[in-house]
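Appendix B. Raw example, untouched.
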Amino acid sequence: MKRGWGILRGTLASTLMLAMISGTGVALAQVDLSDTKVQDGEHPLGPAMRIAKNGLSYIDDSIKDYSCTLIKRERIGGELMARQHALCKVRHEPFSVYLYFLAPDEVKTNEAIYVEGRNSGKARCRTGIGFRSRVGWVSLKPNSVMMMKDQRYPITMTGIRMLTHRMIEMGTREMQFGECEVKFFKGAKINGRKCMCIQVTHPKPRKQFAFHIARIFIDEEMTVPVRYAAYTWPQNQGGAPQLEEEYTYVNLKLNNGFTDADFDEKHPEFVSARDIQQGNVRRVAEGR
């Protein structure tokens, strides 16, 4: 079954690949992950909400851009899709995303670029395989049928800032209700890096609850969220919770100094991951 696009340095090829697949981009910890005690009369989500809001402020103040590998899996129409892997570049101002898909085969070498305020709000996309690969770059609305095929969210919702913002929105809504258990686990590992896991559980299904269990993993060194996974209630008594969606950001490198060239396939200095793999770096870098 054909998969959709979703929602995952132009100047030198080596810089692009290093930014995407190596390094950690170490940043000084600015978010207090030890503030996990529920205050008197406070909702169980109170400490998690403080961490999330402080995290959003830290991202806005200190993180201009980043590169990573995005690994995501989603349930669409009741079917749990295969995991998608994509090299990803994100810039916060203006909000910009570049995705290059690595797997599965149905989307491998597909690319997508979105820049807020550019191209009448449309994304630029290129199919890497099949007859559509001959078309080259095309413009599509982020919420168009083609881009949203087998996807839960548009490309405009990609990234750790959007994830943090969504956590705050969900938490604000959840704090209107009870029946909420929150636990904090330090020392959890994501791609070999220590993280704090925040687990939120609703023991019983209610119409106001979107999930049974949600787990958010925050990198203890960079103090940014690097994984979110949500599960619904088991279909059968005694069964395992059902995964609904999961998003993991690995090989995260912060503040690469990305410019417009990193998100513009028409720019002479733009070098895409596919061009590097196909050995077309010199041609693209010279604008030929």
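End of appendix B.
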